[in-house]
Amino acid sequence: MRVSMMGAGYVGLVSGACFADFGHQVTCIDKDAAKIAALKRGEIPIFEPGLAELVESNMRQGRLEFAAKASRIGEAEVVFIAVGTPSRRGDGHADLSFVYQAVREIAPLLAGTAVVITKSTVPVGTGDEIENILREQRPEADIQVVSNPEFLREGAAIRDFKHPDRIVVGTEDERARGVLAEIYRPLYLNAPPIIYVSRRTAELIKYASNAFLATKITFINEIADLCEQVDADVQEVARGMGLDNRIGGKFLHPGPGFGGSCFPKDTTALIKTAHDHGVPLRLVETVAAVNEQRKRAMARKVVVALGGSVRGKTIAVLGLTFKPNTDDTRDSPAIPLITALHDLGATVRGYDPAGMEQAKPLLPDVHYCQSAYTAAEGADALVIATEWEQFRALDLARLKAVMAQPVIVDLRNIYRSDEMRRAAFRYLPIGRAGVE
Fold first, then answer.
1. 28, 227, 262, 369: which one is catalytic?
2. Domain segments of the chain as ranges
């Protein structure tokens, strides 16, 4: 099929490359001319394992192309909207200006029987407004509007796209259903369930899913705090819970709080939508509030590890992105952690395998280093803020030799207390016994 993708950001680029790999003819369109020029040169603007190779392969085979203008969109049978929906400044609602701008731009160019599909995460009722815009501009056309939310994890997006848990299609139109079935037909061997629902239901499934996962993270983080006070091990608690298939073990990993491009903004947008409809979501409101408090509180663990004060001390922070295998620093827990440490008088040295360039505008006072070991040089404490694979097997003897004090604050629980004890480190993990 001929597919146009409005937006060449994270969702649009990954989705476009994967659809092209399915055999569809895909054009990714983005107003950022510099980004499009870079993509045409094979330069990928985001860090996502396997994406550069996927883009290069499909460009070489002529199935994937990039454009800065939507002039050829009339050739497409399917047009995806995959532009950003950030939190609106001032009130937390999802900013839909990019979505509506894209719709107004493509409306006069669409084929008369095109199917317009929202991949962007949008509040309930957005599809209705898109339909209204298209009807106003193209009253003679039979253009269907469908919701098809994405469920991609940064760092594993290509696998998630090609091996999805489910595909949600929000439309009650039979022709549109057939078009979506054809687009995803290459996945039939994997047999993912395709769930056909109303458009508004599909829009809410995305928000409800992210809010529930955020709730699981926040729940286990609070249980971790309780474990620290009652001498229990949160990882064993999480394992014991997760073996119950009604609960499951995913997202029961304690840490410094959730961040990233989805959970913070989506929980906020869901709360705002619920308030607009007179249905306050008290549980989700609490999850969002507790998470923000937790991220700010992580600096206190470092203060405790250093005897009550970090003033004049040097702290090494490993990991600046909100999770491993991405360069995304949006709402990363490392940001409020480092900001608080600076406010308390500490000097911060930082290292991240992929996210340092993105972090620099947000954290200009950090001394950025080229490895975990150079970051640790002269440090009074080392903080593991993101669980990158390369941080899981650090040479503890080498660390101890270069640090001013042998203190590690492990906010991701990637080490065992017994190995830290053997290496003679003071060790503070999350929700389980450390080494004093």
1. 262
2. 2-197, 206-436
What's the CATH number for 2-197? 3.40.50.720
Query: Which position has the token pair 């092209």?
Result: 20
262 in catalytic set: yes
The whole-angstrom separation of Cα 28 and Cα 5 is 5
Strand 347-351 to 367-368 pairing? parallel
Q: Fold for domain 206-436?
A: Rossmann fold (3.40.50)
Q: Which residues contact 48 (CB under 8 A, 6 or more apart)?
A: 10, 14, 154, 155, 157, 158, 325, 326
Q: Decide if pLDDT at 141 tops 90.
A: yes
How many beta carbons lie within 10 A of that of residue 363, not counting itself?
Answer: 21
User: What SS3 class is residue 147?
Assistant: strand
pTM of the full structure: 0.94
Q: Output the CA–CA distances (angstroms, integers) from residue 169 to 19, 127, 128, 206, in the order listed.
A: 16, 12, 15, 11
Tokens standing for residue 58: 């499909």
Beta partners for residue 410, in sequence order? 384
Q: What is the pLDDT of residues 150-192, one digit of tens each?
A: 999 999 999 999 999 999 999 999 999 999 999 999 998 778 8
Cα first-last separation, the chain? 62
CA 184 – CA 163 distance, rounded (Å)? 11
Q: Would you state the pLDDT for residue 191?
A: 82
For residues 297-301, average pLDDT: 95
Tokens standing for residue 151: 């469920």
* Angle formed at CA 64 by CA 60 and CA 70, multiple of 5 degrees: 140
Report the greatest alpha carbon distance in the chain.
Answer: 76
Whether 206-436 and 2-197 are alike in CATH topology: the answer is yes
The three-state secondary structure class of 51 is helix
- The answer to whether 345 touches 312, Cβ cutoff 8 Å, is yes
The dihedral through the CA atoms of 200, 261, 153, 178 has a sign that is: positive
